[in-house]
Write a structure and sequence with these properties.
The protein is of the alpha+beta class.
């Protein structure tokens, strides 16, 4: 019964994501990024120059409206983007899409810089700094901006703003909570044997203590955690890359070639079409850096400044740091290690048969092979590869089938998930692969370079990045709840968020496929709502952008 429910769940998510992440939608997002790049005369360059000067405090004024500094706002936003998406999301992209996925992540990183600049500037234009709290984000852009520019819409402004808040909450609980908590619990359980439920309780307690302090405490904690963890992670990654420096030129060539060609199956990697590589790379990059989602503007709206464009330029640094720097480093470590295409971990003692069950196929329960290191535990995830024959519905292909260690009548066995095939499939791999989903694959890659490094580094990074991401996303979701239901709903929301962390660690997500579907769902629904809002006000943002830099130029000339 559990397999059936899980299959229905996966198929439903896949169907929804197939619509919201259709190839034409992705191409449309790229076109928007290109148009904004040309329109702003390469705002990316402004972020890398003027933006750095801003976060160093050159333009800070103590009496500017807002609650936190430019650096704290950037740190809080980065704590939401530089999370396990960089560690686990990049691993997912490469495990499913191959080396070429990293190239398309770079494209999103560069175009995402200008998308982030535009959406944050827009939210700064319509934020409110009156009263005890700062209010900002796409819901307030719609609420105030449309009332100002299209008063004839009437109550429809509330409907549009409310729709954004609903997508914000979906993303909060999928990518902002489930993805982060599951990765932390999965890595900790895999390397240290600590039960996932205990990890969930600890994470929930830490996050709860921070979010009770509001945006000021979130900004303070984030400004300390993010630079520290990024520094350790980057130094470790650079160390691994330097150890394999001679292989880097060939690696870069492989990334570019794979981005524009069908990826061939190698070991654990089942291969993929050009379209799949393109789509997966794009999806994971948008998930990682959140460009165009409308989440970052919520925290940036709290920055102390009287110049809306100033904070928008600072925000443009996020995709660069997140995708161009951190994701690239993670991708290089994984690709240089070869773990993404590793051979089977354990051979079958006897190749299992495949039976047809209803409309699906299922591999017979399989004897658990003897481990060379450590011990199996009930619930451990594994996989094997099957070959799906050509049929009217598609060409011949390889498919990874997930399995779980279970306690059978004659001892421990591997129970396999059902899968679809129009003709009788065959077992392709001569054994099983341990499932290193998300962050655990990155940890394995670090361990290949320096035994023990991945175990400690990635576990620590996953915890700190995961905690910081959940803290920031809890604030994003809180702003959505506050807009929809008022302050009275904030406390129940915070309790629900912390309980959700425990729930996520307890096993709601069981496979790499489910993890990817959940992350893409949250990202996709927000892009569908926020990008049209940004386009609607684009001309106003561009005017502000150009006027700001004209003022800066005059100041520098005098």
């Amino acid at each position: 019964m559990g397999f059936v429910v899980q299959q229905i769940f996966n198929q439903s998510l896949a169907g929804i994501n197939g619509v919201i992440w259709h190839a034409w939608i992705i191409l449309g997002l790229l076109c928007v990024g290109v148009v904004f790049t040309v329109w702003t005369r390469f705002a990316q360059f402004r972020s890398l120059t003027h933006g750095v000067a801003i976060i160093l405090g050159r333009y800070d004024k103590h009496d500017d409206p807002g609650a936190i500094s430019h650096f704290q706002a950037l740190s809080a936003a980065l704590s939401a983007t530089v999370g396990t998406g960089n560690i686990g999301g990049t691993a997912l992209a490469i495990a499913v899409g191959g080396p070429g996925a990293l190239f398309w992540m770079w494209i999103v990183g560069l175009l995402g810089m200008v998308l982030k600049t535009m959406e944050v500037t827009l939210s700064m234009l319509y934020r409110s700094t009156d009263g005890a709290t700062v209010q900002g984000g796409p819901m307030w852009v719609v609420d105030r901006g449309l009332k100002e520019n299209a008063p004839w819409l009437g109550s429809m402004t509330k409907v549009i703003a409310g729709t954004f808040c609903v997508t914000l909450l979906i993303a909060t609980f999928t990518g902002g909570l489930f993805f982060q908590a599951w990765n932390a619990s999965n890595v900790t359980q895999q390397f240290f044997g600590i039960p996932a439920i205990i990890v969930g309780v600890i994470l929930a307690t830490i996050v709860g203590l921070v979010i009770l302090g509001g945006i000021r405490r979130i900004g303070t904690v984030a400004s300390r955690i993010v630079p520290f963890m990024c520094g350790i992670y980057l130094l470790s990654g650079i160390y691994v890359i330097l150890m394999n420096a001679t292989a880097v030129p060939e690696l870069i060539q492989m990334i570019f070639q794979s981005a524009f060609s069908t990826s061939q199956a190698q070991g654990a990697f089942v291969g993929g079409t050009i379209g799949a590589v393109f789509s997966i790379g794009m999806q994971q990059a948008f998930f990682s850096n959140e460009a165009g989602q409308g989440s970052s503007p919520i925290v940036h709206s709290a920055a102390k400044t009287d110049e809306p464009v100033r904070e928008g330029v600072v925000a443009g640094l996020e995709p660069f740091i997140d995708t161009i720097v951190v994701c690239t480093l993670t991708g290089f470590v994984i690709l240089l290690s070869g773990v993404w295409k590793r051979d089977i971990d354990y051979a079958f003692t006897e190749v299992p048969a495949i039976q047809q069950v209803d409309q699906n196929w299922k591999i017979d329960d399989t004897a658990v092979p003897t481990r060379t290191e450590g011990q199996w535990a009930v619930g451990n995830a594994v996989s094997c590869i099957v070959r799906i024959p050509a049929s009217d519905s598609g060409s011949e292909r390889l498919q990874s089938v997930a399995g779980t260690i279970a306690d059978g009548s004659d001892g421990w066995v591997i129970q396999w998930q059902p899968f679809e095939s129009d003709a009788r499939p065959t077992i392709e791999s001569a054994g099983i692969f341990e499932t290193y989903a998300g962050a655990s694959l990155t940890a394995l890659a670090f361990d290949q370079a320096q035994p023990g490094l991945g175990r400690w580094l990635v576990t620590l990074a996953t915890w700190l990045f995961g905690i910081s991401t959940m803290i920031s996303w809890s604030y994003y979701g809180q702003q959505g709840v506050q807009y929809l239901f008022g302050m009275r709903a904030v406390t129940p929301y915070r309790v629900l968020f912390c309980l959700g962390i425990v729930f996520a660690c307890a096993g709601i997500v069981r496979s790499q496929t489910e993890l990817r579907h959940l992350a893409n769902l949250g990202t996709g629904v927000m892009l569908w709502v926020n990008v049209p809002i940004t386009l609607l006000f684009a001309r106003k943002v561009i005017r502000e952008f150009q006027a700001y830099f004209e003022r800066i130029k005059k100041q520098n000339d005098t």
